[in-house]
Amino acid sequence: MSSKTDTVTEDYKEKYGFSDPVESYAVQGIKGLSERVVQEIVRLHDEPAWMEQIRMKALKHFLDLKPPPWAPDLADIDFQSFYYYARPTAKAADSWDQLPEYIKKTYDKLGITEAEKKFLAGVGAVYESEAVYHSIKGELEKQGVVFTDTVTALKEYPDIMRKYFGTVVPFQDNYIAALQTAVWSAGSFVYVPEGVKVPMILQAYFRINERNMGQFERTLIVAEPYSEVSYNEGCLPADELVSKGHSFTQIQSVGLREMVATHQGRRLAVTDTYAHPHNGQMLTIVPQSSVSAFRLTPEHPVLAVKRSAVAIRKSRNGWLPEASTAKLMKAEPQFIEAGKLQVGDFILYVAPTETKDDALLSDTLLKILGLYLAEGGVSYNKKLRRDYLSFSFGESNSEKLLAEELINLIHSIGEHASIYKSRGKYWVVASYSKTLIELCRSECGNGAPRKVLSERIMLLPAHRQMLLLQYYLRGDGNRYSKEGRSMMIRASTASKNLAFQLQEVLARIGVFANINLREGSEDVIAGRKIVRRDQYIVEYTEGKKWSAVRKKGNVYFVPVKKILSEQFDGTVYNIGVRGDETYLVKGFAVHNCSAPVYSAQSLHSAVVEIIARKGSLVKYTTLQNWSRDVLNLVTKRAHAHEDATVSWVDFNGGSRLTRKYPSVYLVGPRAKADIISVAYAGPGQIQDTGGKAIHLAKDTTSKIISRSVSKGGGHTAYRGLLHIAKGAKNVKSTVRCDALLLDPQSTTATYPYMEIQEDDATVTHEASVGKVGEEQLFYLMSRGISEGDALSMVVNGFMEPFAKELPMTYAVEFNRLMSLEMTNAVG
């Protein structure tokens, strides 16, 4: 990799990755844990004296404590190494447009605007330590519903905050709660008045941007009697073609460890795959030809050179500014967000450079394969019950000479073929050679729309590929002279993939070809229906003195012809390629967008307090997918009063270490708790999760369902508590924890605690640890399902109790996430 390219990659990480420069923050990080840090947080928030007193007591309590003996990994954390506060903006925005551009881009990637449009709901965004945005639909405000950040709530709703803050999770409760109470910042405050039913989902998005950062959001939800509320914490479209260096694959089908071509012209393995819902703008970048157009979201970076940077004349009479070839050759391409590209800017088409000669593919065979690609096909002779190979040529004398040359080529390799005239017009060459039939099928496919070049051919040196291409063009090509000065060469094919392969082969030999589409049609001629397929026209010009496309090595600078925009609502996809951090879409270089992953750890420590008053309903859903460098230490607890229902729906799929046990204290008669805890642990991950139900009143019910999947040496643990206090009569509770191990390296553990102090309680407890059964996989694979897809189906079925509790958009993405994690998991 050249030093210039290294610079490009690093430049992307600074400008276009998810990690934003801290120099733009209103207040930069405060590192280490001390009274001064706490006092500075109080000062910046302009907090009342009572909150400062609570913080100071919590800090002293934390410093006096030792990590609990059952969590030895907490003792290894250096709490002085984290930044405990950073403010990206001077104040929380009242409208989305008020946010700084770099924060809006970050949350656009997370889909926050999509959520706001789709659900017309409240949305909160926490970036580093601060709330940067909160909004809620006006009609709800009129009903008295409050959805804001906790810092604002301290000022605007001080009585409610003082009444409830720390009553569910006091700082004396546990080691992490003490730390969190001392240094909390931001989070969400939700207040729902009596009898109000919030008809949509309130959502929050939490973001850690900087390494060694600690995020300590504090969420407080108060649901007054008989109210209801749900709260959620919270690229390219399908079918875009990704170059594998020898073929093209739809992006949604690209799997882990598959090889794809990068902007360096080499092939590297895919290390990550992503999918998420997108509701918003979708751009179509159209280069020289419409078939080469590709779609992507506005923030997705494309390797490009701005025309303005290489222009030598200004735009005149509507024409684009003239670009200097000399300047263009010296320009250093940059990764530019698609939304910032303009017509006339140069995007980079990259010809893969990896080659591998194959002596078994002789020059004679390449000539035969070139003609087969253009004129040949394999059919079945019903009378002889045999496959046969045929080549169809025109009736002209030149076509006859080409057919006779083919006969000689076939005979020269020791195979037999014959020539005859079909219906007295067309020349046909036929052969029943099994060797030749198998060669043509394996190297070039069969059937006009399904013809493709094999990996062996696509990796041949360029001069050998040119030999095949010359004979293909003799069969399927046309030459048009332009006033004797240049020659236009065109070839048509019904195979879209073959058209892109031919474009790539031509690029390897120094020619940039355009691809245009002649759409298919239907006609009725003499009473017969005639269907004409789409035809892809590959064309280029020989002897042209000037071209809008400029070449440097294996890279072509192609001007953007037009940019189209449309509204899109669906799933978008992305892949990660560690090393070059790029891949090619229809030959054009784009960057893979990915969240920042640092070798240094970051800390996420949250406290969520819920007060569900009489007859209220609160549902709290979390989809946690922090990057693998984050320590995720969370306390979530609710008080459910008489006839209230609290539901925790919790998924943990990211972070290096997670310790989270959502709990419900059932303090009033007939209160109900539902806890669904799901965890996925991959390589290097520990997911220590579970749930707690504390029955303090009669006629209360609870259900705890825990599901976990471990893969690649990951470790999951269920840690739960069921407590039925003396006097809590007629309690009913169900606890079920199931674990699935996908390989011998992965582990799981169960730590169920049951404290039952009443004789009439009805309690059931079930636990199981299983492996994916060979019979299950065999059953699915015997019905044509691949092993990876079969495993995904088994795991998604195992996770079904969680997925069915999610809103549809999240359920689709959860299933997609698990499917991606399972890709290539077996073997």
Report on this model:
The protein has 827 residues and is α/β, with parallel strands linked by helices. 25% of the residues lie in helices and 36% in strands. It has 21 helices and 46 strands. Strands 3, 4, 6, 7, 34, 36, 38, 39, 41, 43 and 45 form an 11-stranded mixed beta sheet that branches. Strands 2-1-5-8-35-37-40-42-44-46 form a 10-stranded mixed beta sheet, with helices on one face. The longest helix has 16 residues, at 49-64. The protein is elongated. The chain starts with a helix and ends in a 5-residue tail after the last helix. Mean pLDDT is 80; it is low at 1-27, 88-96, 109-135, 205-213 and 594-600.
* Main sheet attributes: strand count, strand direction, barrel closure: 11 strands, mixed
How helical, in percent, are the residues?
25-40%
Strand tally: 46
Q: Name the beta content range.
A: 35-45%
- Report the uncertain regions: 1-27, 88-96, 109-135, 205-213, 594-600
Question: What is the first-to-last residue Cα distance?
Answer: 33 Å
Class from secondary-structure proportions:
alpha/beta
What integer value in Å does the Rg equal? 32 Å
Average pLDDT, all residues:
80
The helix tally amounts to 21
Overall spatial form: elongated
